[in-house]
Amino acid sequence: MAIKHNNQIQHNHFRKDWQRRVRTHFDQPTKKIRRRSLRQAKAAAVAPRPVDKLRPIVRCPTLKYNRRVRAGRGFTLVELKEAGIPRLVAPTIGIAVDHRRQNLSEESLAANVARLKAYKARLIIFPRKGAKNAKAGDSKDIDLDNTETVSALVSALPIVPFAESITEIKKSEMPKPIEGGAYAKLRKVRSDARLQGAREKRARDKAEAEANKK
Questions:
Q1: Could you please report the per-residue DSSP string of 104-123?
Q2: Which of 156, 154, 79 is nearest to 123 (CA)?
C-alpha cells in the first residue's frame, strides 16, 4: 500500500556501508599493459602462424544492415568442397568451419571460394616436429628468409566493404517509362490474368454456337 501524507518513514535503512561496495578501476592502465603483453606472448608462442583464423565474408542480418559485409563464423562445407579443402583438414591449417551456415546465393559462394583459394595459394605448411618424411600437403623447399609472414590474417586478407554510397547513372541508362503508367499496367495485367478463363470460355462457346448454326 502506498504511503500517504507527511508521516515518518518506517524501517528506513539509510546508513548502509556503501563505501565498502564501491568498485574502483585504478588498475585500468595496468590491465591495458597486461592485455598487450598477453597478446604479444600468444603471437610469439604460435609464430610463424597467425593468431587468428580465416573467416568468410557474410552479409549482416536484417533489412537495415544487409548492405554491409563482415567476417562470419566459418566457411560452409560446400565452400570448402569447391575450394578443394577437406573439411577435417581445414581447422588444422587455420580455417574456421561452420557446418550450420548455408549458401543462399552464387555470389557469396564464389566470393568465399575465391577467398579460400587465395589463402591456399599463400599458405606454407611446415612438416611436423620430429617427422622424418614430409606428409602430403606439406610445403617443400621453404626459405624463411625470403618468405613474408603475417601475425594476423585481417591485414593479409582484409574484408573490403562494398560501396554503400549513392551512385549516379546517365539518363540514357534509365529504363524506359511504361506507357500509361506503371500502376495502370499492373492493373491491366492483373485483370487479364483474372479474366483469362472466362474470356476463353466465352470465345469457345461463341465458336461452338457458330458451328451449330451451320
A1: --HHHHHHHHHHHHHHHHH-
A2: 156
Q: Measured between alpha carbons, how far is 19 from 13 in angstroms, rounded to an integer?
A: 15
What residues have CB less than 8 Å from 64, skipping those under 6 apart? none
Separation of first and last alpha carbons in the chain: 96
Residue with cell 564501491: 22
Determine the distance from the C-alpha atom of residue 84 to the mean position of all C-alpha atoms in its chain, rounded to a whole number: 21
Give residue-wise pLDDT tens across range 154-201: 888 888 887 666 678 888 888 888 888 999 999 999 999 999 999 999
C-alpha to C-alpha distance for 121 and 94, rounded to whole angstroms = 14
Amino acid residing at 182:
A
Report d(CA 86, CA 91) in Å as an integer: 10
Query: pTM of the full predicted structure?
Result: 0.63
Contacts of 122 (CB under 8 A, 6+ apart): 156
Name the DSSP class of 141.
S
What are the helix (H) ranges across 135-175?
Answer: 153-156
- What is the CA 152 to chain-centroid distance, rounded? 19
C-alpha to C-alpha distance for 170 and 172, rounded to whole angstroms: 5
| Spatial separation of the C-alpha atoms in residues 168 and 11, rounded to whole Å | 71
